[in-house]
Design goal:
seven-stranded mixed β-sheet; homodimer; 15% strand
Amino acid sequence: MKLNSGLIALEEDYVFAEVRQRVQRFSAQNPDRKVISLGIGDVSGPLCRAVIRAMHRAVREQGRRRSFHGYGPEQGYLFLRQQIAAALTAAGAPVQPREIFINDGAKTDLGGLLDLIEPGSRVLLCDPTYPAVRDDCRIRGLEPVSLPAVEADDFLPMPPPGDPDFDAVYLCSPGNPTGAVYSRDQLAVWVDYARANEILLLFDAAYAPFLSDPALPRSIYEIPGARCCAVEIGSFSKLAGFTGTRCGYAVLPNELSSRGIPLQALWARHQSARTNGVSYVVQCGAAAVYTPAGQRQTAKAIAQVKENAAVLSAALDAADLSYWGGEHSPYLWMKCPRGLSSWGFFDFLLEYGGLVGTPGIGFGPGGEGYFRLSAFGDPSRLREGGLRLVRAMDYLR
Amino acid sequence: MKLNSGLIALEEDYVFAEVRQRVQRFSAQNPDRKVISLGIGDVSGPLCRAVIRAMHRAVREQGRRRSFHGYGPEQGYLFLRQQIAAALTAAGAPVQPREIFINDGAKTDLGGLLDLIEPGSRVLLCDPTYPAVRDDCRIRGLEPVSLPAVEADDFLPMPPPGDPDFDAVYLCSPGNPTGAVYSRDQLAVWVDYARANEILLLFDAAYAPFLSDPALPRSIYEIPGARCCAVEIGSFSKLAGFTGTRCGYAVLPNELSSRGIPLQALWARHQSARTNGVSYVVQCGAAAVYTPAGQRQTAKAIAQVKENAAVLSAALDAADLSYWGGEHSPYLWMKCPRGLSSWGFFDFLLEYGGLVGTPGIGFGPGGEGYFRLSAFGDPSRLREGGLRLVRAMDYLR
């Protein structure tokens, strides 16, 4: 057998796996020291009551002959697609239920949607960016093209000059790992560029729930013309703490087509071959996020993460460190002090602070010299984390 | 953008979607006639009590700060992998937990595992076969090569003569759609062939729970040498009625490698980029299948499907129709009478019997002239279905 050369060529270790290993080694050598993680963007707390209630109800239905659900629609249940469409529409991004495709988490479709594009095509990715997309490109025989996201542009790169030599672009706003948020005007430039050059725009809105300024766009479909060029990916992971429960969605608008081929129909065909849909119980839980109780309860959890982020911001200010993000994002993106490399700062912070964060290099070469802190987690642990950070920095003075 | 030419080239409609449309049209035109489906292989009844109990418990855990689960291991929770490994080992196919990878249903990995192989490679598929795999090949830029599964061989094709010009082969036993079951000796020939020619053997064991003859192999790993060449795919859909709950697994043995590259590590790397694992609640439900209560309750449901299959067999005998399967499989594969095409027989059976089955052509050109009946479903409906089948056949005399 000839193995997939793109898959074989992937770097040995995904950044989070390497982080896990280094922490395990440290904990084994220092059994008395309790490590605080400001690393992976996992959820802070349990699922909210509205979701739990809906999931119990769904489990009960699955246990009774009259109400159990076998194979569901590959695209997801209409009851959930209607809720998502209504929420996007209410937020100023008119979307229809038929345009929504439910998935078991944004990660699945970030890779899966690349199946729409011919192998050998080139995909523009910010550097740094969410690393799974770069890996997905290589697995699928697509060539990732790097678009530097640098301090001077506030980590919000605009379309590169000259004729584009790529077929798709992946943007994430609020961004992972930088927390940077595109303005409406900036996204309008990207949309015009994508339309003029027939480029597929993959827009990752997983962190939109953290936006608090109504002037900032929550959905690419707030931008005129986006329905002709953009797929949006949303997630319940950050919105409602679904990291261990698994649900997300992709939006493929009616107008999205290439040379007369509607991408919505093509994606529906793809999904009929590739999936049997998402667990009924999980979809019922996701739909409960849109009930009044679900809205109140998830808003409270998000407000808590934003408070956590403010605590970390204050610590970074106190330690006189440069950073970005944290305002409309659960992530704070900081510059490693004293010219340390990102793994160098990781090791320093673990050793001197008992703190874990994510080395920027894990998000691409452009992340070297930077470091990501995540504001997810228990508030008292986060506060302790902030104090440790400030104290640790004393060792560098 | 250049769209994926393999995806664009897929036939317009997946067979089950076309079936759904024809049934909808018939029901709209005949609102007074109640259609009985012997079509899609969906489950007969609700999840068993042991699974329901475990899922309620898991939902409760997800709602409490002390017990909720965020991101789980991409490979699946060890508690579930241990159960699956123990069950396979007890059945005579020694497997370790580290060799098991949990997925959200066999369909996901049947396509996903093709990522292991270099695009452009050729994959041998029986004709007829489960159509999603053929579609997956095309989506991934792999070339499906057809291996005729014909009546003369009891629909159990053996390796083709001459040098193989393909890198992988997909086998399903008990087979979908034919219900045919390979013997140990036959699988031993396939394993030897795969090893001698460095071919990856993808073995779909989704229907193994329906085997009642201990002489027939339930797992490819009962065959010596299989651990060096085969990936096995299992599913909770048929085993425990998880079609709407979504859980399955793939087995990648330690010994499986190609030119020194271990496929287990390669697949772990793939999964770290492509998934964040399966819902915690769902994995807890799946693990409950292996409790004593879960084993009793699922065995009862499977026995019911086998009784249903016996009812359909009796009806086919009474109607003097030729058929295969139904003994170790939920599917009966029948020859269309009077030289009817498979869609011709579909339309006939719908019109004269108010019955829905699956046209053989939907499983590949080799399925033309055949028809699949599924024994999943409510027993009284199945009995009524059998009666209708016999009555309908009178119209053909």
